[in-house]
Structure prediction request, 161 residues.
Amino acid sequence: MDRKQLNLALQAFFTAYRSARYQGIVITVPSESHLALLCGQIEAILLEHDIWQQPGMGCAPNIPCGRRDFMDAVFLPRPRGLVIVSPMEWMIDWPEQDQATLWTGIADAFGRHDILGLSVATRSVTAQLRVSLAEHGLPGVPVSVWLSRHQPLDLLEGVLA
Prediction:
């Protein structure tokens, strides 16, 4: 994946998405190497966000972490946006229904800080995302952006593939 093309696609998307009502986003990529590149670009673009890169690092919750505690930490009102890298790391022992609750919460997030989840697109993650989020591609890069099914797309014309 070309870093410059990824950066341009992400910057265009985030610029257009700032005025969107639903502020929850999940971005998926096909592999761990793509995820590492995506994380580097997200860190460079979203400087004003808190980034949870792994459990127990910085202000990220430790594991094991129950659904209620994790959800409270994610959706607690905060002055800065939140980026969660590989949310599945916190959900290792969670039943599928609890995992789905997190994704649905991200899809319904509005009126608070923005929440961005970054993940490798495994079959289980993709199946859970499809319940409450709609998949869209970014032009020219193997990246899927998952937005709330309730989110109007008129503001995003030209930035989604």
